């Protein structure tokens, strides 16, 4: 926390009220204590071999929960990564609030005692024969499968740029650990040299829908603090038909973009980036009757932040576990029941987190709510019972509106506003300082020390 405050002082003078923070931290601490008690108050003698594919936010939390709740757990976790990343921190690296070292820990420190970790990648799943194939460790059979490999960033689907050339032509993306670090360097430089900044999302479902909007607003505030706002223009492009689709929060977000003089361009799809001449290629999509009409256009830029299209990992499609037709055919998200997480075709497979087709926001905040329900439902399946726990689509997206404020968007499947943090006395349709404190100082330790360790 000390380092974060020091870094922040170089950007904005944080009006840091220790008493305000301590009061807030105490209420969060009490909630965590209750969460730990709740997490310990359940157990089952159910048996069966569980294989978990992917040990990120969802997979590791599932491993921890199931290991806690099953009296005789038999759990194998397959994941090739040495590191556990706190990805929501990537935005804070890209805006200079966090140091890169703040957002990751060694994967081995999270593997629950007794859980077998196969440090490898899954390359195929055979849901008929109940086995998975790995790159180096052969085949592994299962009785029950938890599918949590996250999503795939399809860099090659933006013409003119690839993962390896990320940053070339000053085109950046903080959805990657190195990319986030390059983004921060480039934003500081952009404020000095000035020019035109373009910010885009992508036309597929993507993790943290708020992130592209946050980095745009943070650039604007950073430039203002550096007394360089007049040197830069900022433009936001979204493939969606509105800036944000949760009505309780949209008016204030639109107002903020208006106040900051950042034009919003709707229904625009990024096609490619000519990094040599710093020109972005877009398509404006108009729907006339049943027909969609795409009109190409280009924009030159000096700094650009973009998102690549996203999908479930390829092995999901190849195993026939994802969508093969309809609007998600290209993205092949895993088909699950949106309340119970059970696969639509295979009753011994559960999926949650980013790779699933759950029609809510792809965030680790959503996963925080999904995990205890999914773990209980899996245990019911192991006991030969119907899964009864029902997920209401809870998701949260803390939209950082400047260095010091966050619009804490929490909502359900119906896009109705919810509140899970101790904010109920406040007007949550506006950005707040308390939500900033939560975002910068509390959520990361809750992730590493609470959620990933099987606590609520
Ligand atoms: C820039 C950015 C900002 C964000 N901001 C927020 C925010 O403010 N709030 C919020 O709640 N969420 C935020 N998120 C989203 C959040 O980080 C994700 O929703 C969450 O990490 C998804 O968890 P997951 O377990 O589904 O996938 P991941 O956490 O990505 O984990 C997937 C795991 O699967 C493993 N894996 C992949 N392929 C295979 C394979 N073939 N075999 C075995 N293992 C495999 C990977 O190594 C990884 O460990 C943000 C994300 C980004 C990138």
Q: Strand fraction band?
A: 15-25%
Q: How many individual domains?
A: 2
Which CATH class of the largest domain is shown? Alpha Beta
CATH architectural designation of the largest domain: 3-Layer(bba) Sandwich
Mean pLDDT: 93
Q: Whole-number radius of gyration?
A: 22 Å
The count of DSSP E runs of length 2 or more, i.e. the number of strands, is: 22
Pick out the low-confidence regions.
Answer: none
The CATH superfamily of the largest domain is identified as FAD/NAD(P)-binding domain
- Helical region count? 10
State the main characteristics.
single chain; 456 residues; alpha/beta; FAD/NAD(P)-binding domain; 2 domains; 5-stranded parallel beta sheet; 10 helices; 22 strands; globular; binds flavin-adenine dinucleotide
Topology, pairings included?
Elements: H1 2-11, H2 18-40, E1 50-53, H3 57-69, E2 75-78, E3 83-85, H4 89-94, E4 104-106, E5 116-118, E6 122-126, E7 131-134, E8 139-141, E9 144-147, E10 152-153, E11 171-172, H5 177-193, E12 195-200, H6 211-225, E13 232-237, H7 250-259, E14 264-265, E15 268-274, E16 279-288, E17 291-300, E18 303-305, E19 310-311, H8 314-318, E20 349-351, H9 364-382, E21 395-402, E22 405-411, H10 433-450
Parallel strand pairs: 1-2, 1-9, 2-5, 9-20, 11-18, 12-13, 12-18, 13-14
Antiparallel strand pairs: 3-4, 6-7, 7-8, 10-19, 15-16, 16-17, 21-22
Helix pairs in contact: 2-10, 3-9
This protein binds flavin-adenine dinucleotide.
